[in-house]
Amino acid sequence: MNLKERIEKFKELEYEFNKDFYSKLEKRQRPHTLFIGCSDSRVDAETLFQAEPGEIFQMRNIANIVPREEEPGTHPSAVSAIEYAVKVLKVKNIVVCGHSKCGGCAAIRKLKTYSKKLPYTGEWLAQSVTISDYIDSKYPDMKEKDKLVMLEKLNAVQQLDNLMTYDFVKDRFKSGKLNLQAYYYDIGSGAISVYDYDSVFSDMINEITEARRLALAAEEENTQAEN
Ligand SMILES: [Zn+2]
Hints:
The chain is α/β, with parallel strands linked by helices. It has helices at 3-17, 19-27, 45-49, 76-88, 103-109, 111-117, 119-125, 129-138, 144-163, 167-174, 202-226; strands at residues 33-38, 56-61, 93-99, 179-185, 192-196. Helix 3 (45-49) links the parallel strand 1 and strand 2. The protein binds zinc ion. Zinc ion binds next to helix 5.
């Protein structure tokens, strides 16, 4: 089926049978959840949550990354979606969803080579390279495929800490009005692991965050020295 045929099918089968629903939906959206997911076409928030249009606000990018407030450069596209969801739509949940066989995370493992081919993607993914380096230093003997799975999981959990660098997220979380969770979706088995902000990975995330902070400080010092 081509795209035109798909749209016709939507009008004939979906829209025609649910006209009232779409008429009400047009008036307002009241999503309960902000879903931060990888752009990967296999990760579908509506299917995972068995949700209807209007329930889930989404921000998707390669490897489901939330730029930390202190990261250099501006990332208004990503941050504005979070800002709008929290401040205006007042979502009750933010879910960051990592997944198995993530091409973005695999690229983080080979970032230098990858960046030559896809410089924009490389620059974006560099935000999570500290997690990959951390895994190499802590688990030098781990098999590469296991390191990738660990990166996929840790990268999702790391984003909860990244979210907390924004006062508008932190304040709402601390007031008990916002729930933060990281998911790891194993596409092949359908299994979904759920991690809270305070999870088994918290100590690791603290170490990774500190390493990233030091790396950024060193980068800034080098830039100043060059100038
Ligand atoms: Zn992915």
